[in-house]
Design brief:
heterodimer; A: about 425 residues; alpha/beta; Rossmann fold; five-stranded mixed β-barrel; B: mainly alpha
C-alpha cells in the first residue's frame, strides 16, 4: 500500500474522535501495550507449539488465560529438556503485552511477549535433573559402572530398598525365578523423604565395603517424580558411579528415568527384572547344562579308552593272524606240490613204461632169429674176458701196485722214485710208503 | 569371587570349547584323556559354584552385619 489512505467522513452525530486509519491505530495500540510495565506471570502451559522463529503457548489458570509468544532463540537458550513444556506444566514467565498490528494480508494478534521463563513445580525438578544429568555425563560418570564385570552367578547379593515396600517381595520373586538361593544382604533405607538419599548412599558404601558382595540391587516401586527424586541426588549418583561393585537400579516405573538409572551398570524396569539382571543365569538350567557336560566328557573318556583297547587288541592279533594265514598258505602250496609231484611221477612212469615197451619191441624185432646165438657168443666172450681180468689174479693172492692215480708201478726203481704207492688186494686197496 | 579364580562363565566357556574339540573327533588319545581330565575339573568347579547358590536363601541385614564386623574388628586387632 502506498500513500495515506483517503479519510472518509465520520459517523453522523458521533462525538468520538476520528475516524483514524486502522493501521495507524493498530501501531498505536502496539506502542501503547509495549509501554505497559513488564511483569512476571505464572500459570500452566497449554497448547505449546513451535513455529519457524517463535514458540507459542497459552498460560492458563482457573480464572483466565493469556496467549504467549516467545522467540525461539530465547527459549532454546534455556536448555530445557524435550517435552518439559507439556500441557499442564507450571511455569513462571516474565514479559509484557504486545500487539502485532497485522496488515491487509496478515491477521493481527495479541500476545504476551515472554522474555524469560522458568519451569516450576515438578517440571522444575525435571529441569534440574536434566542439568545434573548433562553435568555427570560430561564428567564421564555414566561409563564406569557399565565397564564393571558382572558375574553370571553371584554368591552374595546386596539389596538396598525400603523395608516395607513391595519391591522387597519383587526382588525375592525374581531371584526365585532364577532358582538362585545364595546369600542376600538387605540394606533397608528410607526411599522417598529428605533422609533417603544420604541413607541410600551410606548403605551402598557399606555394602561395597563387604568383599563378598558381588552385585547390588537398588529397588523402589513407582511414585511421583518428587517421590523418586532421592534417586537423582548428586552425591548418591556420584557414589554409585564410582562404586567397585556393579549396581542394578530399578527405581519407579519404566516411564520414569531417574539419574541413578543413568549411572548404574544396568537399569531395570521392575525390581523383579533387577533381580533377574543380578543373576543372569538360570541356576536350574545351568545345573542341567553342567550335567550334560559331565555326561559328554564321560562318554568321550570311555570311548577313547575302549577304542584304543580295541585298536590294541586288533594290533595284537595281527602277527598271529599273519603267521596263521601264511602257514595255511604254505600248507596249501605243499599239498599242491605233492599232488603235482605224484601226478608227474605217475605220468613219467607211464611214459617210461611205454618207451621201454616200445624199445623192447624194437629190440626184439631188430634182433630177429639170431638173437639167442648171439647171446650165447656174447656170454662166451664174457667168460673169456673174465679169465683175463686182473682182479681174478688178485683173488689168487697177487697184489697190484699203482702210483695212487691209476698208473701201474711195475719196478722197484719206480716204486723208490715215487715213495707213495697204492697196493690193491682182491678185497680193497691200501696206501703204502717205501721205507728204504 | 576373587580375581585369580576362574569365573563360572570362563569355566563353562572352556568346557564348551573342550566338548567341541572332543566332538570334532580330531583329538588323539593323549589329548582326549587330557581334555577329559581338564573338563572333569571344570565340571566340578561349576557344580561347586551352583551348589553355593542352591543351599537355600540366607538372608542377612546389613545393619546387623556391620555391627558384627565392628565387634570383630577390635578383637582382630588384639590378636597377635
Amino acid at each position: 500500500m502506498t500513500g495515506e489512505p483517503v479519510r472518509p467522513k465520520g459517523i453522523t452525530g458521533s462525538e468520538l474522535p476520528g475516524p483514524y486509519a486502522v493501521g495507524a491505530y493498530a501501531r498505536g495500540m502496539r506502542d501503547f501495550l509495549r509501554a505497559r510495565p513488564r511483569v512476571q506471570v505464572f500459570g500452566e502451559v497449554w497448547n505449546f507449539k513451535i513455529a519457524r522463529t517463535r514458540a507459542f503457548f497459552e498460560l492458563r489458570d482457573a480464572d483466565g488465560a493469556l496467549p504467549c509468544g516467545m522467540w525461539r532463540d530465547r527459549l532454546e537458550a534455556l536448555g530445557l529438556p524435550d517435552g518439559v513444556l507439556a500441557d499442564g506444566t507450571q511455569v513462571v514467565v516474565g514479559g509484557g503485552p504486545d500487539y502485532y498490528p497485522g496488515s491487509r494480508t496478515a491477521s493481527p494478534g495479541f500476545s504476551f511477549d515472554v522474555s524469560a521463563l522458568r519451569v516450576a513445580g515438578e517440571g522444575d525438578l525435571l529441569v534440574q535433573l536434566a542439568e545434573l544429568r548433562r553435568r555427570l555425563d560430561a564428567e564421564g560418570l555414566f561409563a564406569p559402572q557399565k565397564a564393571l564385570p558382572r558375574p553370571v552367578l553371584p554368591r552374595t547379593i546386596g539389596v538396598v530398598t525400603g523395608e516395607s515396600g513391595k519391591a522387597r517381595d519383587d526382588v525375592l520373586a525374581g531371584l526365585r525365578r532364577r532358582g538362585w538361593a545364595g546369600r542376600l544382604v538387605w540394606a533397608f533405607a528410607p526411599v522417598q523423604d529428605r533422609r533417603a538419599a544420604p541413607a541410600i548412599t551410606r548403605a551402598l558404601q557399606d555394602l561395597a565395603a563387604i568383599e563378598e558382595i558381588d552385585v547390588v540391587i537398588v529397588a523402589r516401586g513407582g511414585g511421583s517424580l518428587a517421590d523418586l527424586f532421592a534417586f537423582c541426588d548428586e552425591t548418591l549418583c556420584r557414589t554409585v558411579a564410582l562404586l567397585r561393585v556393579p549396581v542394578i537400579a530399578s527405581v519407579g516405573h519404566h516411564t520414569d528415568r531417574t539419574l541413578i538409572d543413568d549411572v548404574a551398570a544396568v537399569s531395570a524396569s521392575t525390581p523383579t527384572h533387577a533381580a533377574e539382571a543380578a543373576v543372569p543365569l538360570d541356576v536350574g538350567a545351568a545345573r542341567a547344562r553342567t550335567r550334560t557336560f559331565a555326561v559328554r566328557l564321560a562318554w568321550h573318556g570311555r570311548r577313547a579308552v575302549v577304542e584304543r583297547a580295541r585298536h590294541l587288541a586288533r594290533m595284537g592279533r595281527v602277527p598271529g593272524e599273519h603267521v596263521a594265514r601264511n602257514r595255511r598258505a604254505l600248507h596249501q602250496q605243499l599239498r599242491e606240490l605233492r599232488a603235482a609231484a605224484t601226478r608227474r611221477a605217475a605220468r613219467e612212469r607211464e611214459i617210461t613204461a611205454t618207451r621201454a615197451e616200445v624199445l623192447r619191441r624194437k629190440a626184439a624185432a631188430g634182433a630177429g632169429a639170431d638173437a639167442d646165438a648171439q647171446r650165447r657168443a656174447l656170454e662166451g666172450l664174457g667168460l673169456a674176458l673174465g679169465a683175463h681180468d686182473p682182479r681174478r689174479v688178485l683173488d689168487r693172492g697177487y697184489a697190484m701196485v699203482d702210483d695212487r692215480e691209476g698208473g701201474l708201478v711195475t719196478s722197484a726203481a719206480r716204486a723208490r722214485e715215487l715213495g707213495a704207492l697204492r697196493v690193491t688186494f682182491s678185497d680193497a686197496s691200501v696206501d703204502a710208503r717205501i721205507d728204504e | 569371587m576373587s580375581d585369580d579364580e576362574l569365573t563360572y562363565e570362563a569355566a563353562t566357556a572352556r568346557l564348551e570349547e573342550i566338548i567341541r574339540r572332543l566332538d570334532s573327533g580330531e583329538a588323539g588319545l593323549r589329548e582326549t584323556l587330557d581334555l577329559v581330565t581338564e573338563g572333569r575339573t571344570l565340571v566340578e568347579r561349576c557344580a561347586a559354584e551352583l551348589d553355593a547358590v542352591s543351599r537355600g536363601l540366607e538372608e542377612l541385614r546389613l545393619d546387623e552385619l556391620v555391627a558384627r564386623l565392628e565387634q570383630q574388628t577390635p578383637d582382630a586387632q588384639e590378636a597377635p
